[in-house]
Amino acid sequence: MIVKMGQEGPLSWEGKMTRLITKLGFATGLAFVTAASSLAQELPKNLRVVIGSTSTGGDTYQAASFVADAMSKHFNINAKVDAVGPTEAFKAIARDRRGTTIMIHHDQSYLGHLYGVKGYEDIFATYKIGPTLTINPGNAYLVPKKSPYKSVVEVIDAAANGTRVRVAIQPGGVSEIGFSALKNAAKIKKPGSEENIVPVNTGSQSDKDQLLFDGQVDVINGSVQSNEQYTRLPENDQKAMRFIWLTAAQETLEQVNEKGLGETSRESLMQYATPKASVTLDGEKDFTFDKDFFILYNKDIDPAIVAAIDAGLKEIYAKGAIDKTMKDAFFVPHFLPSMEATAYLEKKRGDYNKVIEAIRQ
Amino acid sequence: MDFLPQITPLFLTLILCGTVIGIIFGAIPGMTATMAVAVCLPLTYSLGLENGLALLLSLYVGGISGGLVPAILLNIPGTPASIATTFDGYPMTQRGEGESALKIGIYASLFGGLFSLAVLYLFAPALADFAIQFSYVEKFLIIFLALTVMAALSSSMLIGIFSGVLGILVSLIGAYDVSDGGNGEYRLMFDFMEPYLSSGFSLLPVLIGVFGLSSILIEAAAGVPESTSAAKVALGQGKKFRLSIFRGEWINLFRSASIGTFVGLLPGVGGSAASIMSYSQAKTFSKNPKTFGRGNPAGVIASEASNNGLTGGALIPLLSLGIPGDATTAILIGAFTLQGLQVGPLFIGGNPEIWKSMIVAMLIANVCMFAVMYFAIRHIARIVMVPKYILLPVILMMCVVGAYTTNYGIMFDVWTLLIFGLFGYLAHLIRLEIAPFIIGFILGPSAEIYFVKSLESFGTFTIFFTKSWIAMVLWILIAISIGLSIWMSTSAARHRDET
Amino acid sequence: MNMASFPKVSIDFASSHLVFPMLVSVLLGLLLVAILVTRWRTIWGAFTTGPYWPAGIDHRRFFGTIVLTVLYFLAMPQIGDFFPNEGYGFLIASIPFLFLISLLYLHQRTRRQIVIAAINAVLAPTVVWYLLSTAFSLTLP
What we know:
The complex is a heterotrimer. By secondary structure, chain A is α/β, with parallel strands linked by helices. Chain A is 43% helix and 19% strand. Chain A has two domains: 42-137 and 291-355, D-Maltodextrin-Binding Protein, domain 2 (3-Layer(aba) Sandwich); 139-289, Periplasmic binding protein-like II (D-Maltodextrin-Binding Protein, domain 2). Chain A contains 15 helices and eleven strands. The longest helix of chain A is centred in the last third of the chain and has 22 residues, at 338-359. The termini of chain A are far apart. By secondary structure, chain B is an all-alpha fold. Chain B has one domain (4-239, 249-498). Chain B has helices at residues 9-27, 33-40, 44-47, 49-66, 68-74, 83-94, 98-131, 136-147, 149-153, 157-171, 194-197, 203-221, 228-236, 250-265, 271-284, 297-321, 327-338, 347-350, 352-380, 388-406, 411-429, 434-458, 463-466, 469-498, and strands at 174-175, 186-187. A two-stranded antiparallel sheet of chain B has the order 1-2. The radius of gyration of chain B is 22 Å and the shape is globular. Chain C is mainly alpha-helical. Chain C folds into two domains: 13-48; 59-135, no CATH class. Chain C has helices at residues 19-48, 59-82, 88-105, 111-135. The longest helix of chain C has 30 residues, at 19-48. Chains in contact: A-B, A-C, B-C. Chain C: The chain crosses the membrane at residues 20-38, 59-76, 88-107, 114-132. Chain C: InterPro entries: DUF1468.
């Protein structure tokens, strides 16, 4: 079975070659034509999109590519994604007031600051927050298939009953926030029992998986995208895992494409998220975390550029093509113009700050 | 033969283009296979998965192979994985055997590539299950084994180890990387360095600084003597290449290709460790280890067979665990996700057509690489005849481009190049050893993570001995490697005393 | 790191960034002492008898290279800043840099060689700039 979701048209191979050659830039003439007919006066002709990740295989790069491609076409500019990593990306937009460099990052940008990671500042004070773009709903927690824990509720119960539960996370951000929520929920259930949920700090996804295979941890933070196939392995396989919790909100998961991911449908994914898998925030509401991708600008950027990008993205999202691309890739489109995005993200930051403060000794 | 329909003219053209572009990227100091794959990644979206992967895989094969050219001819490793190629390749060039060394390297590369491809095709899932037996402890021991080569590399063991340990220390500057599992705290630097050094010095600028820029500075200090006529003579002199060089090297070939494949399949150990380890093993088991480092073809064979062995090896965890084995395969993941396809333990079984087409693409790419390089060698080898007033400035410019683009456009990386160029020159003056230094620098960060995490999880030093039988085997290899270094250095000292 | 009951050890995550650097520093210090002890004669000899650096090297070419390189690195981002994200900083700075370095390294500056150097200085950066910046859309200064 070949699962191809690329926009593969019925092109002849000559057609494909022509496209490749054009892409390789040997058709210089074309570049001149594009340059001459540039319509968007406000936006720089060459836009550098720096991202807060050094990986070109990760979700930040993917999300940024969707948006950069769409903007290139829409504004008739050349938007290029550079995976420079968080520190360098912040520095790059801090230097550039003209708006020739913009940054795309996700909740890590303020969570890093909340957790006190070196190199992260208060983004709301230091930069201008741009529009939100898309959500990766895949943040997940998993256990070995043979694990006694059948659900996230059982993990919290176990902690309340005095059992030590070790959770592999990457400290200081997106990977830790769900872990903090687990501790918070345990504390609400039985104060003091949050001590029983202990972090095992590690790095990449492969390191987290490896700890689970070695039996060094009971629960790992992972993602639907990278762990889904492991959940389909037979139980006697050392590598077999089971989802216990997806942090995404119900409204978000409802927008995921129906097929879900791999062979796990949206329907079955929703079993592992609120309200079915409940991790309480305050005893009433459930904690949720959607990994939002958004644009960050230099603090003193020309408001005309911000407005132009807001307006352009609004049209792009209205057309709907980007929705399909995102949904095909297991992303959920989520466009909010700059003003609304700022308020939305500030509220999010406030909520998570409460969780982190609540469990801080 | 159900994959034959996929071999279309486009498929073949892409592989040829990919191999050639990859070789060029690999051959330019500072540009790497990883970069070649990264810049071509966006192209794959419009190409479709099979064709896109064919392009990327051939870039990978070409890029890894191209690294031997500057390593042998200019003493500058084209990619980090070809460091060990310089140890014997460049001395051969100095003897006038550059062309021969290149050919040896290409044959070894082809062998390594095909060997690892066969392993990938036949044993991928089984080996992936073996790879997950390697926890922090075993990975630390592997790195430690690779580090023991520092002692054996240099004329003086003490200076060699000192240089290597210095390299490790320099590699630790900056934050204890959160994305590797560290706590993100800074160390080994002053506050004013924070804006630049928060993520430490990048590998590639350091590498081309100490190898590339510093050799230009050494030339400049010597007044840039033009000796093209001598080079012309040298090119024709020396031993001609004969396939018989490989006679007696079969074990070396197999061992190196296996080490390459094996290290490739361990996520997080890194490709450079493979060629360094194969080199030291070749030296350890050689009848006359003292000829290593002075232009022994076996050294080139070991390094090149193993770094091409990586190509198949690193794909094993990618395709059967969804985990990239090295930096380049990490980018390949992007090609899959761009097409909406997840890699993981069920990938091969679920997508037999894509799997077979990848194998075929790699096979053709390896053959293509061999053919292209073999016929281009005569011309490539003439690079030593380009007058230095042209060659050196161009190398300098390419080093700058490589440094700047390695992290997608960071100016500090260019300054790193200069800093380590000067350091390399200084090291040359005070007789520090560059090769162990850079090995320490490359392996330092992984050594730290695996060492500290082992102790963090197990809470005792004894775990390094008691963890598993794999750990015991690694200790035996480490003991042999260290014992040999000591034996060699004492016998060299005795030899010095006698003369 | 608490090593009170060796070989048992407990590492506090908050200070775990210091464990390995400390270990490596100590090792480096020991090696330095070992080198000084075994080779103090050679080292002392090198200190007491000349010639001292930078005697005996080609001053003009060595320091010329360093000065030109520093100017080149300083100029690149400055020029590039006028043309954001075009890579012109690299292109414009590289041409004179290459030409001057070539001139510096030439021994006999015949007209022919100067012309070759000039052509190379224009051609090489242009080709590199075109291929990388345009064809592969890599970011250049």
